[in-house]
């Protein structure tokens, strides 16, 4: 009887180990995306789900690679570190390609063009980027707007963890302007009649997917998937779903 029980235990242990191996294999099939889900229309929370342009593109890439997409929401200035430390496989958060960021992560081929714009109250006299000199400007920590604002002569830079916090400060007259990506700025403008976007764009830039320096195989696979999605028109279709032609 003891022998029978021992055999059963061994079999159970073996099955348990197999189950663990299967689970480990399954987890290796996950594509973990780090994002900051407060950046519509690229990523935002809808119910219990993170939706938007980046989420849809990442889902198609994951499907193409035979992987399951898992999206992790975090502070924007934690996203690159999450990829560097292996907590996430990719970074997608309206992430602009910059030389500084390229020191820490690799970027995929760009999948869309973006721009930084200036958001002010409708009563503001600001008409061009030059008019920002000496003013109080709100930015989101770690964004390109944060980087570029530092070069504005005499400006006071107020840094916020999320764009909507900067916009609320603007509406409350705590700051004079917000530097923000064009498409989210349109959302803020449409939701707040007291806000307007200045016609002159602050900068033009490109969004891409961030990948750890050592993860070159994943980067190659992502670029191959992006190429297929661009050629098939799927990227344009997703962007058109969220950003209507003017």
Mean pLDDT: 89
| CATH architecture annotation of the largest domain | 3-Layer(aba) Sandwich
Low-confidence stretches: 1-27
What is the first-to-last residue Cα distance?
79 Å
Number of helices: 9
CATH class categorisation of the largest domain: Alpha Beta
CATH H-level name of the largest domain... which superfamily? Periplasmic binding protein-like II
**C-alpha Rg, in Å?**
22 Å
What count of domains describes the coordinates? 2
Helix content: 40-55%
User: What composes the largest sheet?
Assistant: 6 strands, mixed
Helix and strand content put the structural class at alpha/beta
List the helices and strands and how they pair.
Blueprint: H1 2-28, E1 30-35, E2 38-39, E3 43-46, E4 49-51, H2 53-64, E5 68-73, H3 79-84, E6 90-91, H4 99-102, E7 105-107, E8 112-121, E9 136-140, H5 144-149, E10 156-160, H6 163-171, E11 177-181, H7 182-191, E12 195-197, E13 203-207, E14 210-212, H8 216-232, H9 234-242
Parallel strand pairs: 1-5, 1-6, 9-10, 9-11
Antiparallel strand pairs: 2-3, 3-4, 6-14, 7-14, 8-11, 8-12, 8-13
Short description:
The protein is an alpha/beta fold. It has nine helices and 14 strands. It has two domains: 118 residues, D-Maltodextrin-Binding Protein, domain 2 (3-Layer(aba) Sandwich), CATH 3.40.190; 92 residues, Periplasmic binding protein-like II (D-Maltodextrin-Binding Protein, domain 2, 3-Layer(aba) Sandwich).
Structure description:
The chain has 246 residues and is α/β, with parallel strands linked by helices. It has 2 domains: 118 residues, Periplasmic binding protein-like II (D-Maltodextrin-Binding Protein, domain 2), CATH 3.40.190.10; 92 residues, D-Maltodextrin-Binding Protein, domain 2, CATH 3.40.190. Helices cover 41% and strands 25% of the residues. The protein is built from 9 helices and 14 strands. Strand 3 and strand 4 form a beta hairpin. The protein is globular, with a radius of gyration of 22 Å. It starts with a helix and ends with a helix.
């Amino acid at each position: 009887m003891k022998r029978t029980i021992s055999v059963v235990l061994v079999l159970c242990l073996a099955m348990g180990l197999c189950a663990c191996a299967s689970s480990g294999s399954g987890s290796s099939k996950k594509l973990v995306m780090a994002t900051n889900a407060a950046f519509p229309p690229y990523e935002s929370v809808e119910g219990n789900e993170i939706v938007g342009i980046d989420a849809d593109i990442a889902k198609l890439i994951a499907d193409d690679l035979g992987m399951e997409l898992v999206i992790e929401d975090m502070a924007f200035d934690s996203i690159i570190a999450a990829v560097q430390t292996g907590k996430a496989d990719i970074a997608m958060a309206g992430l602009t390609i910059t030389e500084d960021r390229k020191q820490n992560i690799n970027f995929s081929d760009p999948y869309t063009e973006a721009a930084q714009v200036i958001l002010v109250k409708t009563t503001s006299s600001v008409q061009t980027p030059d008019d920002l000199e000496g003013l109080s400007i709100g930015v989101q920590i770690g964004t390109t707007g944060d980087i570029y604002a530092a070069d504005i002569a005499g400006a006071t830079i107020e840094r916020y963890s999320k764009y909507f916090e900067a916009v609320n400060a603007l509406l409350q007259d705590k700051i004079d302007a917000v530097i923000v990506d064009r498409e989210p700025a349109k959302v803020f403008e449409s939701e707040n009649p007291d806000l307007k976007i200045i016609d002159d764009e602050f900068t033009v830039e490109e969004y891409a997917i961030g990948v750890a320096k050592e993860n070159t195989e994943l980067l190659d696979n992502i670029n191959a998937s992006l190429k297929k999605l661009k050629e098939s028109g799927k990227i344009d279709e997703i962007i058109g779903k969220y950003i209507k032609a003017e």
